[in-house]
């Protein structure tokens, strides 16, 4: 039987276990919802939480979401409702329609009612912020809905015909479900004739992710080659030329630190086949140490300023000027529009390699735009392997593991509970 947890619940309900920070009739579990250590991993099939998440502060809120993610089973769902600041602020500012007493209620929706020590709001959400938090917690998919349709609570409140809540369902899905089924032989026979892949590899590298490449190219029957060494631009150009000489239609550039499956490759292939005017297609891949994708549009002809890609897709693609080579499909016939060398670094106006210079990859995208080669971002999501540094959490959080990006740590961004006492007390260590 599927177990269901209602976080913040106060009234007993069939098939739902109630979890609340205060004792009450019908409450099954009393505690702070950022710590669900009493439950094993994958205990619940569903979790429901309405107007609870905003009570955590900025440090505890992501911890709580990760805990909720942890205790959901592999196909579990999180039914979540939080105050929608976009709507509430709009209502509050309409002084012609709402009197002072009504506007005070809007303030309480933002800051909490303060009826007890727990009825205080510490964070706020709009659509983009809550979506970002949900994804960072590890949920695979999120859908906004008008109603959660389970309990009669704040998630249903409307003012002036507008819901004051963001209601959503977040799904925790197993990636294995997407990579096991084989590709049909008819699809495989077509793509393996059209696509040659090539990989940029250092002489020594991590091997954790090599099975992304092995499983993808094996599953699709693709031929490919690698290049190594410090002369990246030479390797790229040489293998693109080889793909042209061998009669392939597309070259597929792959970085060894990219996570993908053969179905991601198949999606890219299908998209570029449907769009014959597009010369280069790249999937969504995050920048290293940055929350935005490695893609955008140039704000000037020299490509000095790049506006990051935002907004939706039209027919599965979005025009861009620059992207990446993590898993990028290049229509080889389009390269005839470029003057050689295709890949070449360029110094700045002073002739040096400081600010304003163009690396070979960026200069390639500038050349493509100048030559009229259309580049596009595909509605395809791939991963980017990035080194993380893990710490045990503080005592009060039961040492739950905390992750931080390595660049942040190397620049001095340590979690405050891990800072050595000798540093905090400004003591000098003596030799023993």
From TrEMBL:
Boundaries of every Methyltransferase type domain copy: 29-80
GO molecular function, one term: S-adenosylmethionine-dependent methyltransferase activity
Xref: Pfam families: Methyltransf_11
Keyword Transferase: yes
Gene Ontology biological process: methylation
Originating organism: viral metagenome
Signal peptide: none
UniProt keyword list: Methyltransferase, Transferase
InterPro entries cross-referenced by the UniProt entry: Methyltransf_11, SAM-dependent_MTases_sf
Protein name: Putative methyltransferase
């Amino acid at each position: 039987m599927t177990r269901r947890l209602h976080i913040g619940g106060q009234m007993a309900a069939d098939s739902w276990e109630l979890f609340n920070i205060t004792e009450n009739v019908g409450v099954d579990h009393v505690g702070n919802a950022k710590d669900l250590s009493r439950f094993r991993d994958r205990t619940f099939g569903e979790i429901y939480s309405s107007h609870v998440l905003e009570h955590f502060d900025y440090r505890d809120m992501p911890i709580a979401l990760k805990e909720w993610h942890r205790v959901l089973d592999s196909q579990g769902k999180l039914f979540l409702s939080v105050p929608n600041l976009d709507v509430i602020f709009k209502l509050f500012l309409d002084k012609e329609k709402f009197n002072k007493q009504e506007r005070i209620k809007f303030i309480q929706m933002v800051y909490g009612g303060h009826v007890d020590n727990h009825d205080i709001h510490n964070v706020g959400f709009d659509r983009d912020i809550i979506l970002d938090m949900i994804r960072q917690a590890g949920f695979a998919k999120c859908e906004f809905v008008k109603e959660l349709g389970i309990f009669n609570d704040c998630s249903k409140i409307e003012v002036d015909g507008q819901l004051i809540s963001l209601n959503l369902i977040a799904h925790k899905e197993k990636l294995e479900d997407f990579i096991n089924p084989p590709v049909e032989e008819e699809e495989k026979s077509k793509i393996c004739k059209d696509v040659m892949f090539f990989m940029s590899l250092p002489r020594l590298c991590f091997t954790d992710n090599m099975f992304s490449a092995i499983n993808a190219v094996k599953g699709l029957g693709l031929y490919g080659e690698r290049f190594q060494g410090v002369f990246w631009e030479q390797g790229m150009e040489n293998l693109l030329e080889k793909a042209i000489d061998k009669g392939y239609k597309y070259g597929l550039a792959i970085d060894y630190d990219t996570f993908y499956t053969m179905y991601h490759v198949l999606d890219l292939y299908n998209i570029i086949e449907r769009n014959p005017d597009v010369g280069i297609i790249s999937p969504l891949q995050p920048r290293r140490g940055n929350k935005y994708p490695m893609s955008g549009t140039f704000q000037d002809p020299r490509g000095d300023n790049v506006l990051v890609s935002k907004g939706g897709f039209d027919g599965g693609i979005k025009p861009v000027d620059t992207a990446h080579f993590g898993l990028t499909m290049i229509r080889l016939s389009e390269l005839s529009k470029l003057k050689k060398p295709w890949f070449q670094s360029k110094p700045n106006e002073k002739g040096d390699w400081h600010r304003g210079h163009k690396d070979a990859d960026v200069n390639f995208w500038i050349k493509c735009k100048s030559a009229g080669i259309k580049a596009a971002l595909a509605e395809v999501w791939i991963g980017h392997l990035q080194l993380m540094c893990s710490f045990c959490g503080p005592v009060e959080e039961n040492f739950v593991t905390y992750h931080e990006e390595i660049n942040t740590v190397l620049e001095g961004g340590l979690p405050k509970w891990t800072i050595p006492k000798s540093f905090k007390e400004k003591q000098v260590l003596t030799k023993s």
